[in-house]
Give the backbone structure.
Amino acid sequence: MDQQTKDILNQSFDLPHDVVQLPTGGIFYKNKQKSVKMGYLTANDENLILSSFQRRNENSILTLIRNKLYEHDLRPGDLLEEDIHALLIFLRNSSFGPEYTVTITDPKTFKPFETTIVLDELNIKQTYNKPNSDGHFEITLPKSQANVKIRPLTYGEINDIDTQVEQYPQGRVAPLVQWKLGKQIVELNGSSDRAKIGEFIEQMPIADSKYIKNFLRDNVPSLDLTKIVQAPSGELVNVNIAFGVEFFRPFIWL
């Protein structure tokens, strides 16, 4: 990073900001950073959100985080999705308040109803397996009995794969699972040879690929984004908090 760029960043970092704790605790990052400095949304950011909503452009979320992340050596694309969620919640809470109103369907009457979730009451899900010092989990796959080291995808990698899927030729099925596994598996039976890992992935039993997906879901620390609410009929309903430009939609015309 050249000196001129650093000077510009330093000016931005003098703006009002807060410190946000990362749900992952930084255990997957080389510098093990547990928190980051985040600025507050401004009128310029509101323009970005409005434009993104009108164009249905979810990729602008990365731009929004990039504008508000006051860290010299940390790119939003290098963060895990679980940490990005925490930053989005901070931006929303600090600008619009923690109340999040959604419309869902009563499972008994099939009628829509509104419910409000308080976003500053979200807990971090407990995990029981810890990664090694490199941020990798060491596991044995149940079907093939292969020993692999795996890691969660970064937010940037998820976006890149989504772009690949969108650009894939129409009428053909994109190898989404293989692309994800190719990033997640960093070592196979003690070898980091990418060609061997690629061949293994092509022949991997579904039971093993599902095991990797479920293992990462259950062992990467994250905010618990599921809430149970009571419908007017008395039925209990699970509500999942969704992100993207829709996350800010109720406020873009206020």
